[in-house]
Design a protein that fits this description.
- The protein is mostly helical.
- 79% of the residues lie in helices and 0% in strands.
- Helix 1 runs antiparallel to helix 7 and helix 5 packs across helix 13 (325-350).
Length: 386
Amino acid sequence: MENQKIFNKSFLFLLISNLAVFIGFEMLLPILPAYLISLHATTIQVGLVTTLFTVGAVLIRPLVGFYFIDNQRKALAIGATVVLMSITFVYPFLNILWLYLLLRFFHGIAWGVSTTANGTIAVDLIPKTRLGEGMGYFSISTTVGAIIAPSLGIFIYDSFSFDILIWSSVILSLTAVIALQFLHSPAPVKREKPPFQFLKMIFEKDAWFPALLSVITTFAYGAIVTFLVLFGKQKGLEHIFLFFLINAVVSTVLRPFTGRWYDKKGPWIIIIVAAMSGFLSLVILSYATNDFHLIVGAILFGAGYGTVSPCLQTWAVQKVSEEKSGAANATFYSSFDVGIGISAFILGILAEWVSLEMIFRMVSLSFIVVAVLVYKDYLNEKGRHK
């Protein structure tokens, strides 16, 4: 009988590694544009920081997914994390813009390999009957890292220096490399590979629906990490860190329950409920004038986006055969990167014309769109089984 235990030594070290990778990377995001401007970069070059990174990540993931059909994941995960650490270390020594932008492209490649490898190892380690619950636990390392990291990066940069920020990121990457040494990644079953077709591999067609929903919800996440600190300063909210802290705690505490709900009832109802929570969180946040509003918004966002994201990743993996789990993970993570790139561009333009309060209200509608699309899919699925 298949071992139904989720938490073991390998899974715990994978969580530690993935959390360190995400914090180490995401803490740089709000700071790199300011650093580039200090090097006299143009606004176009600042925009290329995100664009080139996203292009590198999206282009490499199909190759990683194809490689993982019948090859070990651990060695590639370690190698990619070492490259992430090395590239981050080089940042302070670069003062030639075109070299910096080129490095961002290769940083995106390493990020694409690392995240796809870690996500695929997680699928390998989790019992298939508890995949929703297990991926919920795994995604804690992703969502908590991504939510906490931007504020942490801003704090280190403002309180110390860019060099200290870089060293913090390097140490976190080194922690991730060390943690990966202690996990055992199951050997994949050897099977005949289909021919590699890049255009088909760049987007795993069976996982397209969860990937599309991920792109849509990323607008909400992008608005939070990009504008919440600035919004807090505009509104005189001195404890903006409460949002990030409480959001992370709620996401973590709810994950076991939402994961089990997913495994028992499927993805539809839980995603719809969580999406409505996300919608309410952004509406309340847009009207925030005190810490109470901030805390309520954080609780609802943790229950909303913090639940939707892991459910979508699990759904993407479940829609494909076992040998394509790497490709499904690649598609999911690429959808997140594409969503970040698109949202940064569109919301940046909108912020020139409308208030941040209106930005939050507008992106709250992304959760409504997700709820409607999922409900429609639920009705279609119900009709097919009549």
